[in-house]
Amino acid sequence: MILETFIIAVRSLNSNKLRTLLSMLGIIIGVGAVIAIVSIGTGSQQQITANISDLGSNVININQGWGRRLSSSSSDFTLEMAEYIEKTSPAVKMVMPNLEASGLLISGENDLRATIVGTEAYYQKLNKYYPSRGKFIDQSVIDNASDVIVLGSELVEELYANEDPLGQKIKFNYNGRTFVFTVIGVMEEKGRGIVGDLNDQAYIPMTTYLNKLANSNEVSGFIAQANSSEEATEAVEQIEYFMTKYLGDEDDFRIRSQDQILDTISSVTESMSLMLGGIAAISLVVGGIGIMNIMLVSVTERTSEIGIRKALGAKKKDILTQFLIESLCLSGIGGAIGVGIGYLAAYLISNIGDWPFVVNSSSVIIAFSFSLLIGIFFGIYPAMKAANLAPVDALNYE
User: Which InterPro entries does this chain map to (predicted)?
Assistant: First the structure.
């Protein structure tokens, strides 16, 4: 009986193809949107997490707080402070000053505003960031305060296009002064990390930065490395304790570890995915209302058919089952089409956005199951209305 009822339902839907398609449209859009949105959220989260995790969970960033930036006591952030942090924090392996200056890089007729970072040889190991061509800052150029520079991959694309920058001279305009450097290396392409987008930065020896650009021992912050990932939390606590004692106010500094950033990003992306998925699920409810509407129309159109079936011995449950299965066919087929469209949309958008294509099987199961529940919920009233029709009234209906 179930198979026969299913065949009758399919034939009924097939007899009004356009109406059937339009009634399924809300379900198709809803299921497809939920799957695509969850996939996009998961893929983008994985990409961001991978970029940050690539630097290691034992990296800690220390910056000045807004109160200290606005005060005249910012000189407390000095080279000597890095030594103090290392001495007073057993869980910290090393502390490296963060020296940055924003200015105009000029190569021939091309110029580009960029950030120059004064650093040392350990920087590349700390950030797991190495040159693709040439070499990075080494101890010899640091000792000699040489006028050399290493360019990020995006800077090379903008300033040199198809030219080889190695060995060429490049100018840096900063605070009304112009400095000339020799390009000794080009860094590999890398995603955003705890210190920002590394690809649009340039790197010079720390001693060159201090002697020529800054002409002081003041720094903008520090990058610390814990002894291990397991000791990262302990290292943050030790640094916070030292900084509070040294500066006197917790608002005078900001400390961020990779783990904290990862937790924050994961929480935000998950919340956004759930919110957008919930909004997309509303269209499933709208689709369910469309199914109820079309089933009520179907009951009205087939009143005489219902009367004949009842006169021939069909029971109330048979009529109820017939229209419930028909409603389930609408939502089930619509849900299946929506799953396919969701996969396709997620794949296309992931290629455009250049993040991993990830479709969570649980989101597919939940979206499809919800579409079936929608079919049952919104199909019950029309089915009960059909089942409760009196045979005589149904046969006399015109």
Answer: ABC3_permease_C, MacB_PCD, Macrolide_Exporter_MacB
pLDDT band at 72 (very low <50, low <70, confident <90, very high): very low
Indicate whether 253 belongs to any domain: no
The string of DSSP codes covering 160-175 is HTTS--TT-EEEEEET
Residue 250 lies in a domain: no
Q: Quick: pLDDT tens for 149-161.
A: 999 988 998 898 7
Cross-strand pairs, 118: 99, 204
Q: How many CB atoms lie within 10 A of CB 244?
A: 13
Total structural domains in the chain? Answer: 2
First to last CA, the chain: 29
What backbone phi and psi angles, to 5 degrees, belong to 303? Answer: -60, -45
Predicted pLDDT of residue 168: 92
Q: Which domain holds residue 289?
A: 2-51+264-395
Residue 295 tokens, joined: 């089933």
The Cα 216–Cα 396 span in angstroms is 100
Asked whether residue 193 carries a pLDDT value surpassing 60, the answer given is no
Instruction: Give the pTM.
Output: 0.56
Separation CA 239–CA 60 (nearest Å): 10
Tell me the C-alpha distance between 190 and 184, whole Å. 19
Residues 347 and 315 in one domain: yes
